[in-house]
């Protein structure tokens, strides 16, 4: 039985029919075609699927789609404005924080949720915020640098 | 060199904006019209006879378009390095990842449901899960046609006279070390899409690291399917991590091809994370017996190594890693007499493959741990014994490697200085320092018949170029390094260089992204092609200026005379002038670079690489004697890279490699129990998180490598090669116990501390 849900996605109201068993990630990727959000494990352990829901970084692969009703949700596609990348995206590029890039959208969303809540985080805050985002390429050092550079630039 | 404008600069990776924006298309993101979803049924047992496979119920499920089992594959069709692996198994399964059947359906969910409806009857057989057991007389033979569980691979290297050297050594240290299975954990799981056109030509969307060799493999497969003279095109999606995992072709790819052929639809197979853990091939575990000797002054006299590798049930490139293990065994430090033998043994475990370092991490763990043991016997500081024996430029090693550039001594000194070695070493207060060095191929590696890479460049009317390279990008940044080299040579901004690197239909041949070879080999190919275009430009401009081409140069897309500054003309203007004229021409150039390195001869000797990369890692650790927990206080990673073409990307390789090495040293282990993986998920198999990052300092030691493009050598793998022994040596310095079995878990440290205290009491 499909159900209709309405929520705000990247600043636009969306109404869509969903199967209750779907995850939010399935809706985003397979139905709405927003493939910027990645699936790295499917059970909430790698963070590649991170989106922001009501200001918090959330693993969309274990988020039941019906829970999205009425929520304000931002994905990586919602960060750039008029074709201009978000300052965090630019920092990740410039600081060398992107290698294979599969973890990058999720990592950026976790960082965004942190900076929205805490514009001047400590290094420990940064580590806390992205601890659930696994990266196998970079060794994280340049990711920390990128997030720090944005925090410092505010 | 000092006037370089693009090479040597910290230029962000060219595809990073696409990746940061979330628009880069990974294999997971690609959908083709009418595409079906494939799923594979794996064995229930690690060793069993298959009595019956019944697919009738699954066939009736709505949405199922095809089901394949072994009889649908060509008879006797085998894959892998020894051609011992049928992509679908018929009579017998030899490991838990053995493929038995596969389904193509209109959705992932239907494909999964169909798998659950396939009924397989097995007769379980006793398994062999220990290579030592498998080598015993009377052990069941896993591949009957092979007649032995020991693979027929003659890994044996002898240089000089080890027995004589033993007699003449003042000190000898001998011990046994072992390493575990670890897996790549690429964040993007494996997958492909197979698609046939109306003439049965195949397009495979792939993650492969070896597009040209994979193309050969699949042409062979199509021949076996009876499709002669068909074309195979490999299109690489953006690759979500490689680390060696994609250096072979795999059963799932052949299965996708078979399903696509049967259904006449595109078929996509994407691994779940669970499959990625148990059904891809890890770095092999090893048991290494080693002894090394030195004279009274600490000069190495010999090194003898015997190794046993668990090959698993089938054979991929993992079985050839002893060829690279020979590199540090024969040539890490100056050691005149060397003997190495290795046996790869079939078991009912998962089969192994290449993973960053290709055997070097396992070998270097034994060599560098044992070198500290030897230093202790000889009563020499571990720093000193490394200084005494360090490799030098101009050396020809016992395995006949010709060492051109070599910054090993500088790396050792950098580590000693930055770690404050003299102050910190030997204090035994729960804190200690350790170091370990590495040698790796840095100028390609002739493991295949060709070590080449091709490049084609075409230039438009405005000075912008398309560069078609065989070199694959797996996130390391070859796209950017190649663009930098081309931009530098042509005097154009990097923004005017477009690198196309993912389609065998337009890109030239390349042996693959492995052996830390891409910057060196593909870089030289790009350099060669760019130089040819440059010559064409200067020749054309020379006619306009009436000036010798050798007096002309290009900067910022302007051609000018170095003799007369008034003579200058925009590059685009020259290009248009030679294009829009009767008999006009547009500029194109190609170059195929194959380094002057050698395949090993029958004795495994020969100059494998055109240059060699060196490095030394130093670590300061603190060990909690109550918990056994090891904390890294300081980590220095010094690498001789020749010339750094892009220090930003290069440091990224060192950080990334370093942390992978730390995971290998301190925590990661695939736990197999009777052939079954017990911890195949990110909860139980822990790769390092951001909280595991120690203070880590990359040190780039630049040497001049004449063969390298702008003097560069490879850096892809070295970052994790010496990590584990450096940490093990530091732990020994801190608390006087030596862990010889990776990973160095708190439990092992604690047990070793207790054992040592027990010894004291006695």
Rg from alpha-carbon coordinates of chain B: 27 Å
In the CATH hierarchy, what is the class of the largest domain in chain B? Alpha Beta
CATH class (first level) name of the largest domain in chain A? Alpha Beta
What is the largest interface, and how many residues per chain?
Answer: A-B, 52 and 56 residues
First-last Cα distance of chain A:
48 Å
The third-level CATH topology of the largest domain in chain A is Ubiquitin-like (UB roll)
Report the helical percentage of chain A.
25-40%
Task: Write the CATH architecture name of the largest domain in chain B.
Answer: 2-Layer Sandwich
Which H/E pattern describes the elements of chain A? EEHEEEHHHH
What is the total number of structural domains of chain B? 3
User: Could you please say which CATH topology of the largest domain in chain B applies here?
Assistant: Aldehyde Oxidoreductase, domain 4
Low-confidence stretches of chain B: none
* Radius of gyration of chain A from CA coordinates: 15 Å
Count of spatially separate domains of chain A: 2
Class per helix and strand makeup of chain A: alpha+beta
Number of helices of chain A: 5
In what order do the strands lie side by side in the largest sheet of chain B?
Answer: 3-5-1-12-9-10-11
Task: Name the CATH homologous superfamily of the largest domain in chain A.
Answer: Beta-grasp domain
CATH architecture tag of the largest domain in chain A:
Roll
Number of strands of chain A: 5
Alpha-beta classification of chain B: alpha+beta
């Amino acid at each position: 039985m499909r159900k209709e849900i309405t929520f705000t996605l990247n600043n636009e109201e969306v109404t869509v029919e969903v199967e209750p068993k779907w995850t939010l990630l399935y809706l985003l990727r397979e139905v709405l075609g927003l493939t910027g959000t990645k699936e790295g494990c499917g059970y909430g352990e790698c963070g590649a699927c991170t989106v922001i829901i009501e200001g918090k970084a959330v693993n969309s692969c274990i988020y039941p789609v019906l829970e999205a009703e009425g929520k304000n949700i931002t994905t990586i596609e919602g960060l750039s404005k008029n074709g201009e990348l978000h300052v965090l995206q630019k920092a990740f590029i410039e600081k060398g924080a992107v290698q294979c890039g599969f973890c990058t959208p999720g990592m950026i969303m976790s960082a965004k949720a942190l900076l929205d809540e805490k514009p001047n985080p400590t290094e420990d805050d940064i580590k806390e915020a992205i601890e659930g985002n696994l990266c196998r390429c970079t060794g994280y050092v340049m990711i920390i640098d990128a997030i720090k550079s944005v925090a410092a630039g505010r | 060199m000092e006037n370089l404008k693009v090479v040597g600069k910290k230029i962000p990776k060219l595809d990073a904006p696409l990746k940061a924006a979330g628009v880069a298309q990974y294999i997971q993101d690609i959908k083709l019209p009418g595409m079906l979803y494939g799923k594979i049924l794996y064995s229930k047992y690690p060793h069993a006879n298959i009595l019956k496979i019944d697919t009738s119920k699954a066939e009736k499920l709505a949405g199922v378009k095809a089901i394949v089992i072994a009889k649908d594959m060509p008879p006797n069709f085998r894959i892998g390095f020894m051609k011992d692996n049928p992509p679908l198994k018929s009579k017998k399964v030899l490991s838990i990842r053995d493929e038995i059947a596969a389904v193509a359906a209109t959705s992932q969910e239907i494909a999964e449901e169909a798998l659950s409806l396939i009924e397989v009857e097995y007769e379980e057989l006793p398994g062999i899960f220990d290579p030592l057991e498998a080598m015993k007389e009377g052990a069941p033979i896993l591949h009957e046609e092979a007649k032995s569980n020991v693979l027929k691979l003659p890994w044996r290297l002898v240089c000089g006279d080890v027995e004589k050297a033993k007699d003449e050594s003042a000190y000898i240290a001998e011990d046994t070390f072992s390493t575990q299975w670890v897996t790549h954990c690429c964040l993007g799981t494996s997958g492909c899409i197979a698609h046939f056109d109306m003439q049965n030509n195949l397009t495979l969307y792939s993650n492969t690291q070896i597009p040209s060799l994979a193309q050969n493999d699949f042409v062979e497969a199509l021949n076996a399917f009876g499709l002669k003279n068909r074309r195979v095109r490999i299109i690489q999606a953006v690759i979500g991590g490689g680390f060696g995992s994609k250096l072979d072709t795999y059963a799932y790819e052949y299965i996708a091809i078979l399903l696509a052929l049967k259904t006449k639809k595109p078929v996509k197979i994407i691994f779940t994370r669970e499959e990625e853990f148990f059904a891809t091939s890890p770095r092999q575990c090893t048991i290494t017996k080693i002894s090394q000797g030195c004279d009274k002054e600490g000069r190495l006299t010999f090194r003898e190594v015997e190794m046993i590798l668990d090959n698993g049930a089938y054979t991929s490139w993992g079985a050839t890693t002893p060829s690279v293990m020979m590199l540090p065994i024969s040539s890490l430090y100056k050691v005149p007499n060397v003997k190495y033998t290795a046996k790869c043994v079939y078991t009912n475990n998962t089969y192994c493959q290449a993973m960053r370092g290709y055997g070097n991490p396992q070998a270097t763990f034994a060599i560098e741990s044992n070198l500290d043991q030897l230093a202790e016997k000889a009563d020499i500081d571990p720093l000193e014994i490394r200084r005494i024996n360090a490799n030098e430029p101009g050396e020809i090693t016992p395995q006949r490697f010709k060492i051109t550039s070599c910054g090993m001594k500088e790396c050792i000194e950098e580590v000693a200085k930055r770690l404050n070695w003299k102050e910190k070493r030997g204090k035994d207060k729960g804190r200690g320092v350790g170091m370990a060095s590495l040698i790796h191929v840095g100028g390609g590696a002739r493991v295949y018949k060709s070590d080449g890479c091709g490049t084609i460049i075409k230039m438009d009317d405005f000075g912008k170029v398309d560069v078609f390279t065989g070199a694959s990008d797996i996130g390391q940044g070859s796209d950017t390094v190649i663009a930098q080299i081309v931009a530098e040579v042509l005097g154009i901004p990097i923004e005017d260089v477009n690198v196309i690197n993912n389609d065998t239909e337009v890109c030239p041949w390349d042996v693959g992204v492995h052996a830390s070879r891409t910057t060196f080999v593909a870089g030289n190919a790009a350099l060669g092609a760019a130089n040819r275009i440059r010559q064409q430009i200067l020749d054309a401009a020379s006619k306009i200026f009436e000036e010798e081409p050798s007096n002309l140069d290009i900067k910022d897309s302007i051609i000018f005379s170095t003799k007369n500054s008034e003579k200058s003309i925009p590059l685009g203007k020259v290009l248009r002038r030679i294009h829009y004229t009767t008999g006009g021409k547009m500029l194109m150039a190609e170059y195929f670079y194959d380094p002057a390195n050698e395949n090993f001869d029958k004795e495994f000797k020969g100059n494998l690489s055109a240059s060699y990369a060196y490095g030394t890692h130093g670590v300061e650790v603190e060990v909690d004697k109550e918990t056994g927990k090891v904390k890294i206080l300081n980590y220095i990673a010094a690498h001789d890279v020749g010339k750094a073409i892009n220090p930003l990307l290069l440091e990224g390789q060192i950080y990334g490699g370093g942390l992978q090495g730390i995971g290998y040293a301190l925590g990661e282990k695939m736990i197999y129990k009777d052939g079954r993986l017990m911890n195949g998920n990110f909860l139980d198999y822990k790769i390092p998180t951001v909280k595991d990052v120690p203070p880590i300092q990359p040190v780039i030691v630049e040497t001049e490598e004449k063969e390298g493009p702008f003097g560069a050598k490879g850096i892809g793998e070295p970052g994790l090669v010496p990590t584990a022994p450096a940490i093990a040596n530091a732990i020994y310095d801190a608390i006087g116990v030596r862990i010889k079995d990776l990973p160095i878990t708190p439990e092992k440290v604690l047990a070793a501390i207790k054992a040592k205290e027990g010894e004291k009491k006695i």
